[in-house]
Description:
Helix content: 25-40%
Distance between the termini: 38 Å
Strand content: 25-35%
CATH class: Alpha Beta
Radius of gyration: 17 Å
Amino acid sequence: MQSSEEKGISKIKKDIYCLNIIGEIEGHTTLPNTTKTTKYEHIIPKLIELEEDDDIKGLLVILNTVGGDVEAGLAISELIAGISKPTVSLVIGGGHSIGVPLAVSTDYSFIAPSATMTLHPVRTSGTIINSKQSFDYLNKLQESITDFVVSHSKITKETFNSLLFETSDMANDVGTILFGRETVDCGLINSTGTIDDAIKKLYSLIKR
Length: 208
């Protein structure tokens, strides 16, 4: 049986938990053993435990993810957003794709100045049925992600959509790559900062 630390959860002090979201978000399909993953079936029950644990006063979320399973990532984001205790996130390295809603799901978000975030529309790989229903589903899923990000950050829907569908920023794809300060300037992330800033902010929210 995996320990809490192996599942991405570790205690900083007795009253704060750290949730590490790293690598690729694994959903219903098991990824190869050579791929660094965050498994949503490990994260979800732990978040519920944290919500019910009276000794835990706050949650720190550390992200360095390439994205991954959209439904799994959005499910984790919704749970983090619903936690009644103070929450703070810090993006280091990267918070790409479905990592975007994960980064903004907390009460306050930080990003390291050197970190990047990639915004792009929902994509799919493998076989897809070429039908109106299939495309309608993808559009609705994208709308859910957009609505979540807009409601949990200061970015406007118009700005977010323009970044999603930018055609000149990435080779062979649509979307936008933003560096640390740029994510703050557009309203996606609250502040640039370090682990020290994130922990201090979390304790200030706990005291408040």
